[in-house]
Amino acid sequence: MKKRRMFLKATILSTTLLLSVAPSKAGYESNQKMGIPRNVDAIHTTYLPVMVDTEFDTMKKIDMQMKNKIMERQQVLLERRYDLRNRPSDIMMSAGRKPVQEGVRVKLPQNMTWDRLNSMTPEEIRDKGVFPEGFISLPHVKHETGGQVIPENHVKEIDKLEKRDLGRFDVDFDLPDHFLPEFPPPIFLTTRPDLGDVSQGKLLSTKNYYDIMHGILTPVQMEGLRLLLTPFPQQQFNQTEDRKVEEPTLGISCLDCHANGHTNAAFHLNPDTRPHVARLRLDTVSLRGVFNQQIHGSKRSLRSIEDFTEFEQRTAYFDGDHVTAAKKGVNLPDRSSQVALMAQMQNIFDFPPAPKLDIFGRLIPEKATEMELKGEEIFFGKARCAECHPAPFYLDDKMHDLKVERFYKPHMSNMKWISGAGPIKTFTLRGIKDSPPYMHDGRLLTLEDTVEFFNLVTGVDLDEEEKQALTAFMRCL
User: Fold this and answer.
1) What percent of the chain has pLDDT over 90?
2) How far is 451 from 457, CA to CA, in rounded Å?
3) Where are the beta strands (DSSP E) in 324-403?
């Protein structure tokens, strides 16, 4: 207990040094109204400081000393929440290089079963404290700091290709590799479906994109791809004294997270929420199929991919604070000569082939198994999935609030305030087996976890066979 208190004090000290600013009285009062403990008030501000008094070497030393404890803290949380073992299924992701993980990985409270849990009301679950921890918001590996954290496989490949370091000295990626998308992801283009995967099994970078895409893309698309691969300053990846990388850096690129126009499961914190402890961990969403999506951004509900591309550079790259962005070198791409070209490229990233689906996005009976057909019937019927995920693209371009906070009491978890998240946009289920982990924050490691989550939260009361069938159907999408 003494060591835990010392670690908490060191964590708060580190964060205070990083922000180098005292919270306002109004900030204290609003935090107390929310019920957030006072011992994390040091990070309850709307704005990040422009001037940082702590020298880089001092901050780096503190961060490196704390790193093992930070990673140990997150590992304890993950092991308490999930079965992290590598249990591959016989279903492969689209490039055929990596199997889909199978089985429910969220751990139940002691002496609890799924049937018993599903028979309880939300109020009973909350009052008894038996809502599975793996069903609540997943904290950032270092929530008190946040920022982009890139998986190790991507970090190593970019270092090999570009001699550019995407690794942070204060944290590492937290989830095991077998729960992440296949790497490098295949690339499918709406303009050349006849070519299939055009990635050549390579990760797109500034060093190879021209050779890979020459003769496939138009000049506009090629320039858009170049810009998507060009690194620009980001809150933790820049030249300043509060960066989290060893050497001053040009920053990160759009495709450092949206690898090959898909996702590598990199995460950061959403820029749209305050105070800092209430911000949401954001898993990187795939760019596949954005050509037919009407809203973008998990909470911002931006109405075009051009808006999303422009505002990512202004807000998400800098924790939603345009004031510090100016100091660190914010990129303000021109709407007509740069943003439009980047959007053109993003709009041709296609979904992977789904050979069992017809042109309306429904199963072809002759190609599907009995279990998959049953899962389709449940998806569009009893489970009510299609109310938010209608065919053929399996999304409704709306934002929904599942009100998961009905099932638990607000509390702190690894420096994150766990409370209601509010409306989140619907994500497409096309190609979903390629995009683990699931939910906006990656809290669900498998599709089986996802089915259990929605079965409980929506109260549709599926039995075990129906849940298995539903999972089988989603793997066909």
Assistant:
1) 79
2) 10
3) 399-400
Q: How many CB atoms lie within 10 A of CB 446?
A: 25
DSSP-assigned states of every residue in 287-343: -TTGGG-S-BSTTT-BSSHHHHHHHHHHTGGGTT-HHHHHHHT-----IIIIIHHHH
Strand residues in 228-292 grouped as ranges (E) = 267-269, 281-283
Q: What span, in angstroms and rounded, lies between the C-alpha atoms of 37 and 419?
A: 13
Of residues 96, 290, 286, the one with CA closest to residue 201: 96
Identify the residue with better confidence: 319 or 468. 468
The first and second tokens of residue 101, run together, are: 């993980």
What is the radius of gyration, based on Cα positions, of the chain? 22
Tell me: the pLDDT tens digits for 6-27?
444 444 444 444 433 333 333 3
Domain chopping of the chain, boundaries = 2-81, 104-140+355-474, 152-346
Fold of 104-140+355-474: Cytochrome Bc1 Complex; Chain D, domain 2 (1.10.760)
- Residue closest to 97 by CA, chosen among 213, 211, 199: 199
**Tokens for 204?**
């797109």
First to last CA, the chain: 48
**Residue 196 buriedness (CB in 10 A; 0-12 / 13-18 / 19+):** middle
pTM, two decimals, is 0.91
Percent of the chain past pLDDT 70, that is, above it, reads 91
